[in-house]
Amino acid sequence: MKKVLPVRTQIRIPPELHTRLVEEASKNDSSLNDAMIFYIEQGLKYQEENSQQEPKRTPKVHSDFIEEKIGISDQAIEKIADKLAERLNQK
């Protein structure tokens, strides 16, 4: 059976982030590569878990959020926008 080798890649990261990763790897007695993989996996896991709870921010989602939390409907927002446009045009 053929062994699947990991993919090799290069990345550019800010020096401060590199320093933090080296420190974390040292604290955990692991390699820089292991630390990078761990934090990437944690970030992706966090993203997956939170993307299920909070929908992507589309205009419709923002509109629904505003109406639900603040009580301002699309119609009210449109009226406000129209009034602002009128006032700007009068000046």
Automatic annotation (TrEMBL):
It holds the Pfam family HicB. InterPro entries: Arc_rbn_hlx_hlx, Ribbon_hlx_hlx, Uncharacterised_HicB. GO terms for biological process: regulation of DNA-templated transcription. This is Arc-like DNA binding domain-containing protein. It comes from Acinetobacter modestus.
